[in-house]
Each structure stands twice: as C-alpha cells, then as structure tokens.
Amino acid sequence: MAEVILQNITKSFAGNRALDDISMIVPDGSFVVLLGPTGAGKTTTLRMVSGLDTPDYGEVFIGGRSMRGLTPAQRNVAMVFQQYSLYPHLSVRQNLEFPLKSPLLRTPQRIIDEKVNAVAETLQISHKLDNKATALSGGEMQRVSIGRALVRNPQIYLMDEPLSSLDAKLRSDLRIELKNIQAKSGATLLYVTHDQIEAMTMATHVGVLHEGKVVQFGSPREIYEQPISIYAATRLGQPRINVLPADLFPAAPANAKSIGLRPEHIHQGEGQNATVMRVEHLGDQTRLHLSFKTHNLITVTDAHTEFKGGETVKIQPRKPLYFDAAGMRLV
Amino acid sequence: MLQFPIDRIASATPPAIAARVKGLSDRAIAWLFVAPSIVLLLAINIFPLIWTIRLSFTNFRVNRPNAQIEFVGLRNYINILTDRDIWLSMQATAHFLIWTIVLQVLIGFSLAYLINKKFRGNDLWTTIIVLPMMLSPAVVGNFWTFLYQPQIGLFNYVVGFLTGSDPSSFSMIASTSLAPWAIIIVDTWMWTPFVMLICLAGLRSIPPSIYEAAECDRASKWRQFWTITIPLVLPFLMLAVLFRGIENFKMFDLVVQLTGGGPGSITELTSINLKRAAFEQWRTGYASAYAVILFVTVFGLASIYVKALNKVKKR
Question: ipTM score of the complex?
C-alpha cells in the first residue's frame, strides 16, 4: 500500500475539459471518497491514477514514484469498474483467479484457492463460484468485480461506484464489509460515488468534485460541518441542507446572500411561525416539511411527535451557515 | 363519465385480432401467416429431396422420359462407392476444402485483427478488402485465367519477379501439381474478406472495458490475446468456417471457369463430377444417388460441427 499524490492533473476530451488542475493527496492507508454528480470528473480521476488514461498536464505519484509513462500493470493498481467488466467466457472462480494467475507471479494454486475462497465468502458468492460470469444477477456481477480486486494486494484499490447496483440490504452490508477490510488491511482506497451515505460512513477523507475541480477535500465531518460553499454543503446530508435567502431570519451578516440550515439546525419552539405541510414518520426520526414565508424546508423532530399537517410551529436557526452571492461560505 | 388517462390509453389499444376476426383463434391466424412459407418450402425443397431419394433407386434417365423405369435397389450406391474416380474426386474436394478453410481463417482473422486497430482510413481499407467478395464468381474465374496466363499473366510475372524463375516456365492451370493450388488461391482471394468480416464482428463485440480490466489485472498483451480475444472470437470464427465449409463443399462456378475440372480430372470436385453425370451423361438415377451421398455427408458433418459450435458458445 502506498500514498498517492495527484499533482495539477488536467485532462480534456475533444476540447471539453474533464479535469481542471486537480491536486490531491491520498494518504497511505486512507479511504478517500470522491463525491460529485455525473460529469464532475470522478471516473476520469480514477482512470488517471490507474493509468488507463494519461493526463494532458500534471503527474501522478504512487509511493513517491512518478507514474509517467507506466502502464496499469506496472503501477500495480486494482480497479473495480462501474460496468463490472467481468470476463464473460470464464466462470466466477476463473474471474477471481485471473489477476492471481499472472505468469509473473507464479502463485501456487493452493494459495490462489485460499484467497479466492476467502474473498468469495466475504462477498457471499461462494455458492456461485462455478457459475459462468454471465449467468449472474447485476448485484452478483458487481460483487465478483469487487472480489477480483480484493484477491490482490495492490498499491491502491480504485473503485468506481462499486455498490451502485446492489439492493439496499446488501449495499449496507458491503459498506461495512469494505470498511472493515480496509481498516484491517490498511489498504489505500480511492472510491468514487455519488451516494453521500457511502461517503459519510466509509471515508476517512472526502474530495468534493465539481466540473473537473476539487472544491473541497477533508474529513466527512469537516465537510458536513464546515462546507466551503453551497455546492459542497449540498453534497452531504440527508435530507439535504435547506438553503434560504439570508434576510428571512434576523442577525444575518451584512454581505450574506443565503443561509444554509441543516435539518437538525432548525430549532423548534421559539422564533417565527411556520406551517407544517407534511409529517414523515421514519421510525427512528420524524421529518417535518415546513412552509416558511413561501419557502419550503425540511427539518427533523422527535420520533413520537404529535405534529400534524396544518399546524403551526415556531422555528429559529441554530448554528446557521452563511453564504455570499457567489455561493461561497462566509466565516 | 370521468375519464382518467389510463382509461383513454386502454380505449386506444385495439382489441385482440381474434376478437375482431370472428371464428379465427390467434393460433389459426399465426398458421395463416406461416402457411405460404411452408408451402413454398415443401414445393421447392422437401418434395425435390424426397423425389431425388426415390430416383436414386432407379435407372431413370431424364433424356429418355418414355423408357421403362426400373428399380435397381442399391446398385447406384454400390457403383458410386466402389468407383475409384469418385473417391479421387472426393479427395480433391477434401484437399480444396481443408486448405481454403485453413488459409481463409488464418488470413481472415489476421486481417480483422489489424483492421480492428484504430488507424486513419480503416473504413476505406475494409471496403477495399471486401471488394473481391462482391464480384461474380464467373468474372473472378475469368480474370484469374488471365492472371495465371504463363506468358502475359500478372500472377506468373510476380512469382517470377519474386523467385527469379522464368514466368512462362510454369502454368498454374495446366500443371497437374499446381492446378489444385490455383483454385485454392483464387477461392482464398475471393472469400477471405468474408471470414474477415465475421471475425471483425466478433472482435468489435468485445467491450474495450474487458481489456482495461485485464490491463489492471496485469495480463500481458499476449495473455490478453489468448485468454480474452481468442475465446471470445472463437464462436464467430467457427460460424465463418461453417459457412465457408458448406459453400466450398458445393464449389462449382469458380472451378469451372478456371480449370473446368482439369487438367485431366485433377480439380474435378464432386459437384463438377456430379453435374457431368447428371447433365452430360444423363444418368439421372445414378446422379441422384450421388447427390444423396453428398447430401448425407454435408448434413452429417455440419450437424457434428454445429454441436461443437454450440458447446463452444455455451462454454
């Protein structure tokens, strides 16, 4: 495992700038999640590190060595592709063995079997080992694809939305499992997703990407509590942060244009009147959809609340975030 | 009545055909549509086949329609299978078949592999390579008789130029040792593009991301070729071999134009042999038996082959 450094990476495809001066340090043994919507440059960043694509400018360092001109094989990276990319004519077992069967490695068959069985166990695909790779469901294919990376011991694991096509239960299981594997083995992971729950639960560091730029890089907590812009603030948190005009509430700084309120930062019982539009009982918590001076906002309240639609509730911001006209945070 | 969008959609959907055409079930209508094809198939394929089998047991001659037809049992079959000339003809066909397939697969796959690389003008090259396939076999045969001409032929000139021998010292068509190769070369020239196209379809069906995955899994180009490219193209390649095999088993036009079966009967493939028996010697019953033997051979070989092909596909 190794530290990975991206230095001023810039890449254009047919005139479109996909990556714009990306610099980032992925510390050894960290779990870095790249977060952003489609087209933000997440996958392209992964491909730069893997060596499947080469940057127009800038350089990638893995373990202190420049990767300029090196192939993916020479870089020793393992990648999980979003579209699985399994070898369709091979069985699940043969797919998992493939990276270990490199003639260079000369891994004994006994060790290959051990590793494959262990990984299959973890990913709950032991019973499918002799299936053909094409005779699997989408979720199973994705697990095989993750397994094919996990059997190896690379410099860094690169994962491109590896949990996106799994059902909710398996996804949360594997989230924990991946985090465990990473924590136990001290593996370095660069992980792409647009799912903020994955980012919050697994990441040691989150890089928020926007149109080919790194907007903010830090721990998930840091980005959640101290976002540098409205964009970064909306990337994390479910329900999303409420963004309202700053002058709706008193005590806004002079140059504030917007106020950002996390659902849990709307204090109930004091302040100005808002109307309850809808009450969502989720079991462990209850969400209130409020209408406040023609603006909609969402807050959370006690699980056993007595609120009903149409009632009036007093609200007041607590720990608000203020943003200027450009959407940047005012500190 | 209150109309929901779903009601509008439902009312816009036509009722089942069977509900409109009284007295006809959907199944009956399906048969109605298939019937013309089945009738045609019976009339021009199945009936002649059965008729041929019947004729193969007689001494019928189509140029003597009024002669008494005698049933001769298996005599035609015995005569054919004990005829040395016919076995030579079968050997010539096998020689032609095996070499054309080997050459066309090797060259066709190599061309497809090269064309599949991204380079400028590969579409143009594909078109140029595919041209021979679009010509009429009669025309191709005719052209190549000129190319093979010892005094003025381009082929002889090029061979002479490359080997330093005298171009007019050999004749591809008139020499008994070279004539079988003359037809193999022309068939390969004409039909390699076909094999190439099918291989190209196979190569293009492999998603590039699989190679990317293999690249990350540290498989060398060599290993990628043998463990990904070849297994994934193999079903396509086998299909091409099937097509070429069946086509070349009944090869006629090119060879008639080029060598006419000669010199002597060195290049007299079974189909030419059969045509002589049927339409030059007018031994219709005998020729029918010959045709049945060829049919069973092709059908048998093709069935075994298709089984193997399906196994490869399922693997």
Answer: 0.84
